[in-house]
Write a structure and sequence with these properties.
Layout lengths: L2 H26 L2 H17 L1 H5 L4 H18 L26 H10 L3 H12 L4 H8 L3 H23 L5
């Protein structure tokens, strides 16, 4: 990569780093994993910068790279383990039920969706992409985006229904 390309690449990354990080967090719900995903994406972006910058919409292309990196990580067997903040010393410790704010509840509900459906909802409603842009980013048809978005929203509504009546799911 020549000096001008490298400068252009650096300017792009600096300008969009926080947005990529937030999008990655919404996909995976863990800041450490989000940072890993962004690092993977930025590394791939560096290797393929000439091809990427020639894309019609570079931001959409990079979001697609990020989403695909997350989907690849979901397929890895060690990602099936769940990290916790504290390891209990005794098996009989009962942790109090946390009080969930609306934002935290939404993140938890998003975490219950399958990865592809969650990706559609994050790209459509958080990144504010159109159906067509979401379809291009994920490499799926517009009809699939519409159906996955509808099913994802319906699942979120069903998951929220018990919470609205004061019960915890």
């Amino acid at each position: 990569m020549n000096r001008a390309d490298e400068d252009e690449y650096r300017q792009f990354v600096v300008a969009r780093l926080e947005a990529l990080r937030r999008t990655a967090y919404l996909l995976c719900r863990d800041w450490h994993t989000a940072d890993d995903l962004v690092s993977i994406t930025i590394g791939k972006l560096y290797r393929h910068w000439r091809r990427v910058r020639a894309a019609e919409n570079v931001d959409a292309y990079v979001r697609g790279m990020l989403t695909n990196a997350w989907l690849d990580e979901q397929r890895r067997p060690w990602r099936r383990e769940w990290a916790t903040d504290e390891v209990p010393d005794h098996a009989d410790i009962v942790l109090p039920e946390p009080s969930l704010a609306d934002r935290e509840m939404l993140l938890d509900l998003l975490g219950q969706l399958p990865p592809r459906r969650r990706a559609v909802l994050v790209l459509r409603f958080y990144c504010d992409l159109s159906v067509e842009e979401t379809a291009d980013t994920l490499g799926i048809s517009s009809g699939t985006v519409k159906s996955q978005a509808a099913r994802g929203l319906e699942t979120l509504r069903l998951l929220m229904a018990p919470s609205a009546s004061g019960e915890l799911s």
